Every structure is written in C-alpha cells, then in structure tokens.
Amino acid sequence: MAKIPQSLYLIHFMLMMSPALFAAVIYFIALPGETSGSTNDETRILQTVAAVLAVIAVGLSQLVPRFLTRGEKFLPMRRFASMKIVQWALLEGAAVFIGVVFFLTHQTSMLIPLAVLIALGRIA
Questions:
Q1: Terminal-residue alpha carbon distance, the chain
Q2: d(CA 55, CA 60)
Q3: pTM higher than 0.85, yes or no?
C-alpha cells in the first residue's frame, strides 16, 4: 500500500477550511450591525441556486471519481491525488458560493449547508 503524501493532507485542509474561514469572518466581523439589503424574492432565488449547486457538487464529487476509475483495481498515487483534489474542489466551490450567498443575504440558515459540504469534504 502506497503512503499518502503529507502535501495531500495540507491541500485537503486548505480546501475545506477556506469556505469555513470566509463564513466565520462574515459571521463575526461583517454581519454584526449590518442590515440585509436584499428582498425576500432575491433571498429565495439565491438560496435555491445555492441548494441546487450544492446538490450538483455533491453528486459530481461522488460520481466523477467512479467514472474515471471504472474497471481499475489499483490507481497510481499521482492519479489518486489528482482525483481527490478535484473531488474536494467541487465541494469547495459550492461551499464558497454558499458563503457568498450568506454574505449577500445575511441568512444564518445558509451556514447549515456550508457545514454539510465541509463535512462531506472531510469524509470524501
């Protein structure tokens, strides 16, 4: 069994923590004292788009590696690392978008799907 490089752990940590840190900065620094500038319709549209994007990202992050490795029993470490980075990047992209929606709408309920995506990135 091949040893997983330490740099892969660092890449994983950074990809998963960047949306969390972004949301934490918004929640603790930008959000207090701010009033939401968006209407209810805008908020619902952004939340719907974020939810759809999150579902698509989760689906793709699980399906893409399976399609790429169909029929292969052993993967070279380089290919495994590349696939994991792509998988984590799909989840991180959706999580960052949810963080932006959280910033625009000031809806703390957006932190729930953000946390779910980060947790899925941890176990992916």
A1: 19
A2: 9
A3: no
